[in-house]
Write a structure and sequence with these properties.
Layout lengths: L1 H7 L3 E8 L4 E6 L3 H9 L7 H8 L2 E4 L11 H7 L4 E7 L8 E8 L6 H16 L9 H11 L4 H8 L3 H15 L4 H10 L4
Antiparallel strand pairs: 1-2, 1-5, 3-4, 4-5
Helix pairs in contact: 6-8, 6-9, 7-8, 8-9
């Protein structure tokens, strides 16, 4: 799934799955770090017309077609960071009890065409329902992640498992990659939300 999202969104993307009161159960952030820092430190989320669209609509839209006011010029600022063309998807079903998933997708070369939008919508719907075919964690990866989440250091994990530190690192990095996490803390959080650890 991640490869497909990267193919459709070469400038970056952000997917938040099953957002409850305010936090997603899972998220994948492949946006440029400088944009994330700029956006976050200025608290732009509360002014972003795209986010207002996400919580007021279901379906798909090109960001250029969102007509909500943008007094903080967030789209223009995103373009300055190479996020020239954007698409947004918002998914929720009546049985979700208010929990929605959404994705923000960006290109720097051209606007999104209908087949792109249809494919991205299908991917977000699959991820939202949890039916996406993602590589599962091995028992060894789960064990190493569980130990790391409990506060043990690499050396301690290696000692308890009677393996090398590099083998522990490999297990943890594989778990992180499979879960789509940037950090081990995020990997642990995702694994916990999926009741893997």
């Amino acid at each position: 799934m991640r490869d497909q999202l990267e193919k459709f969104s070469p400038a970056g993307f952000y997917v938040a799955l099953r957002v409850g009161f305010s936090f997603p159960e899972e998220e994948v952030n492949q946006l440029p770090e400088n944009w994330v820092e700029f956006y976050t430190t200025r608290g732009l989320v509360v002014h972003d017309p795209v986010m207002k669209w996400v919580y007021g609509n279901l379906g798909v839209s090109r960001m250029s077609e969102i007509t909500l006011p943008d007094p903080h010029q967030i789209r223009a600022k995103a373009i300055a960071f190479g996020l020239n063309y954007g698409a947004v998807i918002s998914v929720m079903t009546p049985s979700d009890r208010g929990r929605r998933s959404y994705g923000l997708f960006f290109r720097d070369d051209r606007d999104f065409v209908d087949p792109d939008l249809n494919a991205l919508h299908g991917i977000v719907k699959q991820l939202h329902s949890g039916t996406a075919d993602e590589p599962g964690l091995t028992a060894a990866e789960i064990e190493a992640l569980k130990m790391q989440a409990s506060g043990l250091r690499l050396k301690q994990i290696a000692g308890q498992l009677s393996i090398s530190e590099s083998a522990v690192k490999a297990r943890l990095n594989n778990a992180k990659r499979k879960l789509g996490a940037k950090t081990l803390t995020q990997a642990s959080s995702i694994a916990s939300s999926r009741r893997l650890i």
